[in-house]
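Hi V.,

You were right to ask for the full record rather than a summary. Here it is.
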Amino acid sequence: MAEQAENKEESLMEKIADKIHFDHSSSSSSDSDSDTKSAAAPVKPNIWRLFGREKPVHHVFGGGKPADVFLWRNKKISASVLGGATAIWVLFELLEYYLLGLVCHLLIFTLAILFLWSNATTFINKKRPHIPQIHLPEEPILEIASALSIEINRAFSVLREIASGRDMKKFLAVVAGLWVLSVIGNCFNFLTLFYISFVLLHTVPVLYDKYEDKVDPLAEKAMQEIKKQYAVFDAKVLSKIPIGPLKDKKKV
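Predicted structure:
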């Protein structure tokens, strides 16, 4: 009986030891798995993006058909739009055509073809040409007008904030931008300037979207250098300009 009791105690101790060993091995394996998972999962660095954007370039342009055109997602439509703008610029700038004359000549040519075609069908016994009825929908026009009014009101609010004298940095940036635009406007007429802007909209975004990983570090260095130069300019010039109180004094 004593031997059986000793055997039972030994078997019980062996089971307890095996259980402890199994728990230790499972915990160590789970720890090692978690370590490998944490090591395998790379930490995404906080990458600096131009203008502080957090969304892709396609979403910045609205994410719809205009974004597809600007980023050349549909090459046929983008090429046709850019080709049409180039043809208009060549007609009005290089060939010195006038808008009213071009519209009148196109209407004369179209009406003459349709008129002759309609009368010729009576002699050759064919159906008259089907001239579609053109009707402009109201919703897109109202949406465009609403979007333009929102942007114009936003521009007016920004100009009002700048004129209030609260932000010297924004004031200098806007004045510098307007001065650059005035210099460019003196070098080109409105049509050429509009065409250059149109071409830039169809080339710069797609190039930036393709090489943004190379452009962003260079832009970050440029912004840091601009901030340093602005800090020096602020310390030497702007800080010495007397500025009145921004807020009204409280009445006693």
